[in-house]
Each structure stands twice: as structure tokens, then as C-alpha cells.
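Researcher: We're teaching a course module on how sequence relates to structure. For the next exercise, students receive a sequence and then see the predicted structure as C-alpha cells, so they can try to spot secondary structure elements on their own. Here is the exercise chain.
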Amino acid sequence: MLPLVLASSSPYRRQLLERLGLPFTWAAPDIDETPHAGESAEALTARLAANKAAALAISCPEHLIIGSDQVLLLDGIPVSKPGNHLAACEQLRRCSGRTLRFSTALCLFNSRTGRQQVTVEPFDVTFRQLNDEQIDRYLRREQPYDCAGSFKMEGLGITLFTTLRGDDPNSLIGLPLIRLCDMLAEEGVGLP
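Model: And here is the predicted structure for the students to work with:
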């Protein structure tokens, strides 16, 4: 098996990848993440996931490189990580009572052969009607300021939702493991 590299600085993606029990390293790719004019959420995430993986190809020429990216479109505008309490409050206020789609792209790039597998996994989330007190209480407890959408689904953030719809709940955290297993199998990696 070629060595695995996760093209991400996200501790959440590293924790997810650790679940597969495969050895891997990680590195933060340096790419421009600016959306292109008129680019759909799916196209944006697919491009960024592929660019993240490709950015490490020179330093990792004999590897399987995993790139992933996620976007939430809110009123047609990509939502980024809030970074602070005030911005997170505003994001959750805008999400309250709505069903929103997260698009998580995954790319597995074989830097030896140049083969690239890319997929975009949609995941729909319906938020409860949240009042300012609930939002503030949640944010102070979990402080998800480094998470798009201002929540940690794997933690207390699950209390913010009424329904979740998608093929792989890991995609909502940032790395669709079910599809990744399929991609790794295509490269001859045996799991479990």
C-alpha cells in the first residue's frame, strides 16, 4: 500500500481518518480557496478537495493523498468558519428553523499514477427553532468557532437539529469515510 497523507490541518478530519486504523501522515496544503463567480457549492468543494490533494503531490510523489472540503450555502452564500462568538451567534440565528445542505467533497489522489477519484456527498440538516438564549448557551459550552455552521455534530451540536439526512454522518463532520473506504479499495487498500 502506498503511504496515506491527509491534505488537511483539521483535527476533526484527522480524528475521523484514525477510525480506519490505517497509518497516515498529514500536511496542510496551501491553496487559494476563493469561490469562482457562479460556482455551485458542489463544484467549489470538488475543486478545492482536488486542489488540496494535488498541492501535496510534489512533496508526496509516491502516496495516496486525501483531500476534502466542505461548504454550507446559506442564502446562496458560502458560510465559512465563524472564528468568534458573535459571528457564530449570527450563523446559528440564520440557520434556526431551516433545512440546509452541506456539500462535502472528497478526493483520493494517487500521486504515483496521477489517478484521481472525486465525489461530493450532500448532507441535509434541519435546525430546531433556536432562541438567542439557546444559541448563546450552546456556543459557550462547545465553542465551535472553527466549524462551518457553528456547531460540532459529534458533540452537543446534535441537540440543535430535528433531522439529519445523508448517506454518511461523517461527511457532516468533514470526511465521508464510507466513500473513502470505496476509493481506497479501488487503490487496492484492504479494509478492515
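Model: If you want an answer key for the exercise: The first strand starts at residue 4 and ends at 7. Residues 4-186 form a domain with the Maf protein fold (CATH 3.90.950.10).
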